[in-house]
TrEMBL record:
<feature type="transmembrane region" description="Helical">
    <location>
        <begin position="305"/>
        <end position="325"/>
    </location>
</feature>
<feature type="transmembrane region" description="Helical">
    <location>
        <begin position="205"/>
        <end position="225"/>
    </location>
</feature>
<keyword id="KW-0328">Glycosyltransferase</keyword>
<feature type="transmembrane region" description="Helical">
    <location>
        <begin position="175"/>
        <end position="193"/>
    </location>
</feature>
<feature type="transmembrane region" description="Helical">
    <location>
        <begin position="331"/>
        <end position="350"/>
    </location>
</feature>
<feature type="transmembrane region" description="Helical">
    <location>
        <begin position="255"/>
        <end position="276"/>
    </location>
</feature>
<dbReference type="Pfam" id="PF13231">
    <property type="entry name" value="PMT_2"/>
</dbReference>
<keyword id="KW-1003">Cell membrane</keyword>
<feature type="transmembrane region" description="Helical">
    <location>
        <begin position="86"/>
        <end position="102"/>
    </location>
</feature>
<keyword id="KW-1133">Transmembrane helix</keyword>
<feature type="transmembrane region" description="Helical">
    <location>
        <begin position="108"/>
        <end position="127"/>
    </location>
</feature>
<feature type="domain" description="Glycosyltransferase RgtA/B/C/D-like">
    <location>
        <begin position="64"/>
        <end position="221"/>
    </location>
</feature>
<dbReference type="InterPro" id="IPR038731">
    <property type="entry name" value="RgtA/B/C-like"/>
</dbReference>
<keyword id="KW-0812">Transmembrane</keyword>
<keyword id="KW-0808">Transferase</keyword>
<feature type="region of interest" description="Disordered">
    <location>
        <begin position="519"/>
        <end position="538"/>
    </location>
</feature>
<protein>
    <submittedName>
        <fullName>Glycosyltransferase family 39 protein</fullName>
    </submittedName>
</protein>
Length: 538
């Protein structure tokens, strides 16, 4: 048969060289989703600002999450000195996860079907729009997928090194986010329930995995105990509690529908590969053009293992939420679905007809192009038609310059500590020339890196947005002696008629510093317009 061109030729090439196509797609994926926010976003996202503001404290555990993502972000910033480099981390993490899923799929179904299972992940929201906000959800992706890869290899190849690596990557998943409990519970249950997997208990494998896990997680586990499990209180506060009987039934449905909504583009791409009903009679082999097939037929154990890893963590999360009467946060589904497309490919099986593969290629290219274009529209065009304040429009650098300069002019000391509403304080810590330490939510108990004696000695800046007004009195009690400087109105960094950002800040002068004389009428917070205040555009 003659050599084909266009999408048919591309499909033929992917059939012959699936790894080459995978590498090209992953490089483009990282390139596109790194450069888009680096060029379009004038300010860091909320999660990214938090990465850099708190990661530099190098804690074993923080008030709401384990530390690994913040360490990685802070380390990269220290190496490069450019906040925009942080945009590389999310796309890179997702690319590693996709590679790990492909390696797992190559072992089970072969290179080309595994490639198809990975390509459909480009339609999943967690691998496109939200992947740029590198934080704990994004950091889970590669370790979760690598755990699945080496757990399957450990069961099928029976090598001690695979068991050890499965334990190490599972522990790193916990270092990323404690939601990895759902994966750990799934793997443990599979080893207990599956008739073939149970045989592993007669070998050193599961015990080696448990030992490797324990050694890697030990420092964080110790810090959790020392902090009285502080991050779990944050999780408890995030998940909405049922207050009416009907919510116990509705919350699981609401959570499930939300996850299905995220999965729709991915499931739509998968649907292009097969007819709704299996055709009767003899079926065509998985061959495109004149390319020889290289498909491995998955065994029953492989299919069961994939099904457990694809659906088990979701089932565990849902069951725990039901028992506790809680509504899981939608983004907790972030790492749950990386294996699902591969499990569907393994269970649904070949063949893929020529015409369907070409339609799939067309659908994939459309998704790969449309998703970045939609991101451009949301960031650049939306502000021209409606005013929806976003973190990427926040005037973080301008705010940091004004309050840092004013603090120095009024106290003669560089700004060393900042607190207030979360996003405003984090922006001052990231963009400020002195990179001050953040006292989270104005609560020293949430910030163990803070020495209150040093805070008194060096002074403090309190900055807040309108939603923080109710907390001002409490902050003033925690940090007495505040000298209120007034209000700021800073224009957002966006095209179109968008409302300015309204902020207030107060200075707690260093202990023993000269008294700052306030103008008349400045007795209440936010009544003075300080030098450098930017008025909203007319």
């Amino acid at each position: 048969m003659s050599k084909r061109s266009g999408l048919a030729g591309l499909v033929d090439f992917a059939r012959r060289e699936p790894f080459d196509v995978l590498i090209v797609v992953l490089v483009l994926h990282v390139f596109v989703w790194t450069l888009l926010p680096a060029f379009l976003n004038a300010n860091l996202q909320l999660d990214l600002a938090e990465d850099l503001a708190l990661g530099k404290e190098w804690q074993l555990v923080y008030w709401k999450h384990p530390p690994l993502p913040w360490w990685i972000a802070a380390g990269l910033y220290q190496l490069t000195g450019d906040v925009r480099m942080i945009y590389l981390l999310g796309p890179l993490a997702s690319a590693v996860a996709m590679w790990a899923v492909w390696r797992l799929g190559k072992d089970i179904v072969g290179g080309f079907p595994a490639l198809l299972a990975v390509l459909v992940l480009e339609g999943l929201h967690f691998f496109n729009f939200s992947v740029i906000k590198f934080a704990h959800d994004q950091c889970q992706l590669p370790f979760w997928a690598l755990t699945a890869l080496f757990f399957h290899r450990a069961l099928t190849r029976e090598r001690i090194i695979d068991w050890a690596l499965a334990g190490i990557f599972l522990a790193l998943s916990f270092w990323s986010k404690y939601a990895a409990f759902a994966l750990a519970a799934t793997l443990g249950l599979f080893l207990l329930v599956d008739r073939d997997a149970r045989k592993a208990w007669a070998t050193p494998g599961p015990y080696v995995m448990a030992l490797a896990f324990a050694l890697v997680i030990a420092p964080n586990a110790w810090a959790l105990v020392q902090s009285d499990f502080l991050p779990f209180r944050y999780v408890d506060a995030r998940a909405k509690a049922a207050t009416h009987w009907w919510q116990f039934a509705w919350f699981p449905v609401q959570w499930t529908l939300g996850q299905i909504g995220f999965l729709l583009p991915t499931l739509g791409l998968l649907a292009l590969l097969w007819p709704l009903r299996r055709a009767g009679g003899a079926q065509r082999p998985l061959t495109v053009g004149n390319v020889d097939p290289n498909v491995i037929s998955p065994g029953a154990f492989d299919r069961r293992c994939l099904a457990w890893m694809a659906l088990g963590p979701f089932a565990v999360t849902t069951l725990v939420a039901v028992l506790l009467g809680r509504l899981p946060v939608a983004m907790w589904g972030y790492p749950l679905w990386s294996i699902l497309p591969l499990a569907i490919v393994a269970w649904r099986g070949a063949p893929f007809e020529d015409v369907r593969l070409i339609r799939f290629a067309l659908g994939f290219v459309a998704v790969f192009v449309i998703m970045p274009l939609v991101y451009v529209v949301v960031e650049e065009v939306e502000p021209m038609v409606r005013d929806r304040p976003k973190a990427t429009q926040f005037p973080g650098r301008r705010l940091a310059e004004i309050v840092t300069r004013d603090f120095f002019e009024k106290t003669g000391q560089p700004l060393a500590y900042v607190t207030g509403t979360e996003f405003a304080a984090n922006n001052v810590a990231v963009y400020g020339p002195t990179r001050p330490h953040v006292i989270v939510h104005g609560d020293p108990k949430l910030s163990p890196w803070i020495d209150m004696a040093d805070v008194k000695k060096r002074g403090l800046l309190i900055v807040w947005e309108p939603q923080g007004e109710a907390l001002v009195d409490e902050w003033m009690k925690t940090f007495p002696g505040a000298t209120v400087r007034g209000r700021l109105m800073l224009p957002r960094q966006a095209h179109g008629k968008v409302a300015p950002v309204r902020l207030q800040y107060a200075i707690v002068p260093p202990e023993g510093a000269p008294l700052i004389i306030l103008p008349p009428g400045a007795g209440r917070p936010g009544t003075v317009q300080p030098p450098g205040t930017v008025q909203p555009p007319k």
